From TrEMBL:
Residues in Peptidase M24 domain copies: 210-412
Upper lineage: Bacteria, Pseudomonadati, Pseudomonadota, Gammaproteobacteria, Lysobacterales
Protein biosynthesis as UniProt keyword: no
Name by which UniProt lists this protein: Peptidase M24
Pfam families: Creatinase_N, Peptidase_M24
Length: 430
């Protein structure tokens, strides 16, 4: 998925029924009907082979979280950071196992360079916080009429870091970061990026396994939906099929869907769209397994594509393969983008960003977009365990676009994709 590919509201599945000829059950009734054994005949044939994979998602264990905190503490020492504050969000989940929404009430964790994590939360949330945390049990509560930033400052002063260096996790809202900084006027507040990204950007075997499961599931869902497409369907109809297919797998997922000339914009369009034979359809989205996400794009055609669509598809596939072959440990991230972009430019769809209008890829893990980015000028080097989208595209204004996306992971001496590439426009699922 390209950066901010689609409006999140548009990507939610709001459609509650499928069109005639595809299936007859409302999406909201699918789970209960399946449980009662009444829904099989109502599903498109291509979906009946989809089975739940939820039990295959092995959750991240506490030993791994302990290792993550230990690595964070080593990185703090390397970068001269005494403690890191992490608020609600994916990094809190990554290090502690907590799933917490962000609001005006401060909840977060202080990771010290030495010692156990200390949690700060509203006092009335103490029990719920203790239920969720997987590491330590030191919870400091603040009452509704108290200043939570003063409490964070007290914790750090008690650690001896009143004049030290505090790393602020990048997703912490400005008002909260400022509140903590104002309560610690003699401390130095710096970005915690070297610590947080230094841990999260390299995936473990357990993380890679969850991502692979999610990506394989997304690909299976796309194939099942592709086989159920009918002329005249709208993008909402197709999204309804996607929702039903994901319900079969037991994983939560979604996708943006764009048809025909609207595929010429990487972000697609909110305008009404109808499926016509011979025109491209782009699926772009993913699902979650054990908290880790997939991100796959497929360009398909119902019926026979014309020669130009076929030509562009083959160029994009060649560019995706060139990026895969260029990626290996020690290679600059910008060079992987360059490998794909050269194929597209040399094929007459350049220069630069003229038709391939976005970067090649982004990091991925718990979040769909993470560190780092495969983009021109990025001199950071690839390391084993890093994961990225490999998603070149060609977009011809007012006509059509083609994008192919699979998740690339860096191995000890090369790179590989988590899912098989499209074989051709006629066999998009191999």
């Amino acid at each position: 998925m390209h950066n901010d590919h689609s409006n999140p509201a548009r990507r939610r599945f709001l459609r509650t029924t499928l069109i005639a000829g595809a299936a007859a059950l409302p999406v909201s009734q699918l789970a209960s009907a399946q449980a009662a054994g009444r829904s099989e005949d109502a599903l498109p044939a291509s979906m009946r082979g989809l089975k739940s994979v939820a039990a295959q998602a092995v959750p991240i264990g506490n030993d791994e979280r302990i290792a993550r905190v230990a690595k964070a503490q080593r990185l703090m020492a390397e970068h001269g950071i005494d403690a890191v504050f992490i608020g609600a969000g994916s990094s809190l989940t990554y290090f502690t196992g907590m799933h917490w929404w962000d609001s005006e009430r401060l909840t977060g964790v202080i990771l010290p360079r030495k010692g156990e994590p200390i949690y700060v939360t509203p006092e009335f949330e103490r029990v719920r916080t203790l239920e969720q945390i997987k590491l330590g049990n030191d919870v400091r509560g603040w009452q509704e009429d108290e200043d939570p930033y003063a409490l964070v400052a007290k914790v750090l002063r008690d650690m001896g870091h009143a004049t030290g260096t505090l790393g602020m996790e990048e997703a912490v809202p400005y008002f909260r970061a400022k509140g903590i900084a104002d309560a610690l006027p003699q401390a130095k507040v710096v970005p915690a990026w070297p610590v947080v990204s230094g841990c999260r950007r390299v995936k473990s075997a357990a993380e890679l396994a969850l991502m692979k499961l999610a990506n394989e599931t997304t690909l299976a869902v796309y194939e099942a939906v592709w086989k159920a497409l009918q002329p005249g369907m709208t993008e909402q109809d197709i999204s309804g099929l996607l929702a039903m297919a994901y319900a079969r797998t037991g994983l939560k997922g979604d996708a943006s869907v764009n048809v025909g000339k609207y595929t010429a914009s990487p972000h697609g369009s909110d305008k009404p769209q109808h499926l016509v034979e011979g025109t491209p359809i782009i699926f772009d989205g993913g699902c979650r397994a054990g908290g880790y996400t997939s991100d796959i794009t497929r360009t398909v055609v119902l019926g026979q594509p014309d020669d130009e669509i076929r030509k562009v598809f083959n160029i994009v596939l060649k560019a995706q393969t060139a990026a895969l072959h260029a990626a290996r440990p020690g290679v600059a991230m910008g060079d992987v983008d360059a490998a794909a972009r050269k194929v597209i430019s040399d094929s007459g769809y350049g220069p630069d960003y003229r038709y391939f209008s976005h970067r090649l890829g982004h990091g991925i893990g718990i979040d769909m977009h993470e560190w780092d980015y495969l983009v021109r000028g990025n001199t950071h080097l690839l390391e084993p365990g890093m994961t990225f989208s490999d998603e070149p595209g060609i977009y011809i204004p007012d006509r059509f676009g083609v994008r192919l996306e699979d998740i690339l992971y860096v191995t000890e001496d090369a790179a590989a994709l988590m899912t098989p590439q499209s074989k051709s426009i006629d066999q998009p699922f191999g």
